[in-house]
Amino acid sequence: MTRVTYAEAGVDTEAGDKAVELMKDAVRATHGPQVLGGVGGFAGLWDATELTRYRRPLLATSTDGVGTKVAIAQALDVHDTIGADLVGMVVDDIVVVGAKPLYMTDYIACGKVVPERIADIVRGIAAACEETGTALVGGETAEHPGLLEPDEYDVAGAATGVVEADSLLGPDRVRAGDVLVAMASSGLHANGYSLVRRVIDVAGWSLHTHVGEFGRTLGEELLVPTRLYTAHCLALADAGVVHAFSHVTGGGLAANLARILPGGLVADVDRTTWVVPPIFDVVRRGGDVPWSDLEATLNLGVGMVAVVAPEDLDEALRVCADRGVQAWELGSVRAEDDGDAPGAAASPLVRGTKGVTGGAVRLHGSYRTA
């Protein structure tokens, strides 16, 4: 009879332990006095007495992954940047309501635990958590032989933040006459990679090809980490100049912006106010992708949008400039009118997504490319 062991079945618990040893210093660097118990417990502990200083604390939570961008990291065997993408997708969904992130947990599923690879992933998560002021209080690495190939993995995470109830940002604060402030993305971020990877396949490109528009290889451009907006958004919120934020993730600019508008309002977005970064135009040309499909999938250079009162526009732009964030006036908010009715001659309205019903967005003008 063949003797079967857990290791023979494909699970190496010693490798998992080694991965924890390699990553624990990076994880500890995210811990402040609110974190109890250190690394390796069954549950992460965070001291909630900090919340007693709030009059009415509202907890905000979000969970997400990075989609098929992990396939690029795996193909290039570069794993220390994908963690920033994970934190950006999770924590910056919390900050849009004005919430300060408190703590985060991560989950990595892989076909085989390679300690150095897992440690690289978690170090990236920890570095981004440290940048955003988020404690990484726990996580799990699960080995799934037979379900995932040895070099395959996926990552996900969840985070919790807090906001004072009377400081909550969102549609209730948005008014006709408000102005849209765009904050530049760092590139593709972590959305639309199924489209991008299909274009790569159709065009017959190599990830190792040097691309003049980027000044680096295609693979290096595709792995540029998601920009982290947490501290910048909180600075704007603390300055009292923001009514709402929209994090531009899956679905593109218009659909995500529509999610934070109340019914009866329309945001007019001027496509001519920025130059679309080269990566997006390269993808478009490589797959002959229609602009309409591109803008409904990718961020096209706008990673976060702040909605501010017109009298606060200059201050919002100043706060962004002082923090080194490229920002510009993107458009404005108005009441919906007869010209927005179905069948009107103007470009169609884009309504919300993710089950949200509310306002709408109309995109004007033509995109400018470098």
TrEMBL record:
InterPro entries: PurM-like_C_dom, PurM-like_C_sf, PurM-like_N, PurM-like_N_sf, PurM_cligase. This is Phosphoribosylformylglycinamidine cyclo-ligase. One of its GO terms (biological process) is 'de novo' IMP biosynthetic process. The gene is purM. Pathway: Purine metabolism; IMP biosynthesis via de novo pathway; 5-amino-1-(5-phospho-D-ribosyl)imidazole from N(2)-formyl-N(1)-(5-phospho-D-ribosyl)glycinamide: step 2/2. NCBIfam families: purM. Belongs to the AIR synthase family. Residues 175-339 form the PurM-like C-terminal domain. Pfam families: AIRS (PF00586), AIRS_C (PF02769). PANTHER family: TRIFUNCTIONAL PURINE BIOSYNTHETIC PROTEIN ADENOSINE-3 (PTHR10520:SF12), TRIFUNCTIONAL PURINE BIOSYNTHETIC PROTEIN ADENOSINE-3-RELATED (PTHR10520). The keyword Repeat does not apply. Its EC number is 6.3.3.1. One of its GO terms (molecular function) is phosphoribosylformylglycinamidine cyclo-ligase activity. Residues 59-163 form the PurM-like N-terminal domain. Its main location: cytoplasm. Keywords: ATP-binding, Cytoplasm, Ligase, Nucleotide-binding, Purine biosynthesis. It catalyses: 2-formamido-N(1)-(5-O-phospho-beta-D-ribosyl)acetamidine + ATP = 5-amino-1-(5-phospho-beta-D-ribosyl)imidazole + ADP + phosphate + H(+). GO terms for cellular component: cytosol. It is found in: Cytoplasm. It is an enzyme of class 6 (ligase).
